[in-house]
Each structure stands twice: as C-alpha cells, then as structure tokens.
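Progress note, sequence design subtask.
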C-alpha cells in the first residue's frame, strides 16, 4: 500500500507512539484488503464500548491508547455502552461493572471522542455530507450511512474506527470505491409494508436470502427515516450487507428476488419463541425523537399492567430533547434508558425471562447472546395487550 512521506513518518514513530500504533492497524488492514492508499475521512463512529462485550482485554486496549495521549482529529462519536450512565443501579449493575464501564468511557473521553453512546449518530449531530468518506463501525449505522445518507464507509471494527479517528484516514478499498457500490441484486416487493416491524422483517429476509449482496429494493413505499433505520439494522443482522439502493434508475440487468408476505412470515417464525413475553424492548436502533413522541401519545392516560416491563432505549441527546414525552412514558409505567441498549447491556440482570421487540436485530441478538427467550411483536399489540 502506498504511503505518503508524512504517513511513513507516522509509521516510523516520528509523531509519537499513539499515531504509530493507529497507522500500524490501518496499514495491516489495508494490506489484507489490497488497498491502494489511505484516504482522508470526515468522521468516525466507534463501537466496542460496552464492558459486557469487550471485557477486561478491551478495557486494557483502550486505556493503553489513551495513556499514550492519543487524540482524535475528526468528529468522533461513540456507540452504546453497557449501562445507563446515570441510572445504572436501576438496571441491576454492580459496583465493579460500573467502575470498569466508566474507565472505558473515560478512556474515550480522554482521546476526545464525544460520549454520545448511541447507534444512531445521525440523530445527535454526526451527519456526514453526501459523498464524503467516513469510518463507522456500528453495523446498522453503516448501512444507513451508505444507503440513506450517501456517505462512504466499510463496516469497521471498533479498533480500526478508533485508529482512523486518531489519524483522520482509512484504507481506500471496498465501499469507498464507487465501482464497489453498484447494486448486484434486484429485490421486488410484493406485499404492503406499513410498520417499522414490516421494514425490519424485509431487511432480515433480504439478508437471509441473499446475504452478501448490494440489493436494489424496487418499489419501496411508505418509508420514513425510522423505517429506513429499521431496514438498515435488519439487513446487517441476517446478512453481510452494508449497503442497499432504493432510488434512481437501474443500468444493468440484475438477478431478481421477489419477496412476498409468505417470506416475511418465515422470518417472523424463525425469530419468535413460544411463550408469553414479560418484557417489551423498543429502540433497536435507538429511538428517534419522533418515535419517543409516538410512544408517549400511545400510552398517555394508560398504565402498564403489573408483572410486565416496557423498556425504551435512546440516546442522551434525544432523551433530553424529548424529556417531557419521556415523563409521560414513565408515568405510564415504562422505563426510558439512554446510553445503552438491550443488546450491549447484560439483560439477564433485568430479571425478566422473555423479551419481545419490533426489531429483528434486537430479537436475534438478545436470544443468541443473553439466553433470554425473544420474540417479535407489533407496537399495536403492545398497546392493546400490555396496558390498561
């Protein structure tokens, strides 16, 4: 991989150990993927934040970087951590876990990373310009950035995104190159999609059937930002998909896939377990302001039935902006947590046995990581069955 004279100096350690270590990571990745050179990036979004996920080894890696006085040089935001930074006791988190999670947060903070703790950075100010190169690592945000925001990023790992943030560059390969961003499958929709769950099921089904594709989804209707967010997350869950198309003309003849209601039902059955859920989780990816507003209107003057929980997950930025709606939700018996989510928080600590969500990503990962039962549910069913 070609390096400029300045980059060679970085690699030789002339700018310090932190920058040397960061560019070593990127050069190794560039060599693996046969990148031609490094390119400048506009922003980074860094995963590998939850102590539940990265453990002591990850903590040591981050503290080593921060102790070398590493500093990010582009706008850099942080993925969810393993607890609500303010209400961690309510979540059953013990003191040791809390202290180690805070050491992770402080390491990132020392390096200049914004402590956003969200998988939806585009709701809290990290909004890349169309056509810009970025280094993002949260899988749902990667799909959303490539497909909806028209930015250019590969699906980075936490260490590589951090390394890119420190030197402001990333290897030029994969989805940074226009010729690798073209659709290679035509997906035709032959069913009406109405709810966020419908869009989540569509994404999961596409990933299940054509897992290594860049699909052009033909005839996508009734979408908004939140539905596209749900679609992006599900595409990245069941398949190695980092981008889709849904606008513009198709120039080449593509292989075709038709998805009807039956295929969506197959995905629903695959993701749902027998039994009655006792915990509803909404916000994977994190809820937007509009979703919080919608949920608050739906539960106003209602009360959650006893023995059930409804936990809503969002970013600190959205939580503060939507605070009056948050209070309505909590008065109805719901809990609204920020900074974390049902996937990166040790949800077994909740004491519940069976989680239900309108997110295929949440159901897939909670069932596989935590051991809790998990099922899909429509929001309309939540309001009719679990409230009085």
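Output:
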């Amino acid at each position: 991989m070609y390096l400029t004279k300045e980059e060679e100096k970085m690699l030789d350690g002339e700018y310090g150990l932190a920058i040397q270590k960061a560019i070593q990571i990127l050069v190794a990745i560039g060599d693996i993927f046969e990148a031609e050179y490094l390119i400048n990036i506009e922003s980074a979004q860094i995963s590998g934040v939850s102590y539940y996920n990265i453990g002591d080894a990850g903590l040591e890696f981050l503290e080593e970087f921060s102790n070398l006085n590493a500093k990010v040089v582009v706008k850099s935001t942080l993925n969810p951590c393993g607890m609500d930074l303010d209400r961690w006791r309510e979540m059953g988190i013990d003191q040791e876990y809390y202290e180690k999670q805070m050491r992770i947060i402080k390491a990132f903070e020392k390096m200049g990373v914004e402590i956003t703790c969200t998988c939806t950075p585009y709701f809290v100010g990290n909004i890349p310009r169309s056509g810009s190169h970025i280094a993002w690592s949260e899988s749902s945000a990667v799909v959303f950035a490539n497909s909806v925001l028209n930015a250019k990023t590969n699906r980075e790992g936490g260490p590589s995104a951090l390394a890119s943030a420190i030197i402001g560059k990333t290897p030029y390969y994969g989805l940074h190159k226009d010729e690798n961003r073209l659709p290679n499958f035509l997906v035709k929709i032959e069913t009406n999609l109405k709810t966020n769950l419908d869009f989540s099921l569509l994404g999961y089904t596409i990933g299940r059937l054509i897992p290594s594709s860049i699909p052009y989804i033909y005839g996508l209707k009734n979408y908004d930002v939140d539905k596209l967010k749900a679609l992006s997350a599900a595409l990245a869950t069941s398949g190695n998909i980092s981008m889709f198309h849904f606008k513009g003309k198709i120039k080449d003849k593509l292989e075709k896939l038709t998805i009807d209601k039956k295929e969506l039902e197959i995905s629903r059955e695959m993701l749902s377990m027998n039994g009655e859920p006792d915990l509803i989780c909404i916000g994977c990816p994190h809820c937007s302001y509009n979703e919080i507003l919608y949920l608050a209107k739906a539960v106003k003057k209602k009360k959650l039935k006893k023995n059930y929980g409804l936990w809503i997950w969002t970013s600190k930025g959205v939580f503060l902006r939507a605070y009056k709606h948050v209070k309505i939700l909590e008065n109805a018996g719901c809990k609204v947590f920020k900074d974390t989510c049902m996937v990166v928080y040790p949800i077994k600590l909740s004491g519940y046995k069976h989680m239900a969500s309108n997110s295929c990503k949440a159901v897939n990962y909670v069932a596989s990581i935590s051991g809790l039962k998990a099922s899909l549910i429509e929001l309309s069913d939540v309001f009719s069955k679990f409230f009085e």
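The two ends are 63 Å apart (CA to CA). Work on this subtask will continue into the next period as scheduled.
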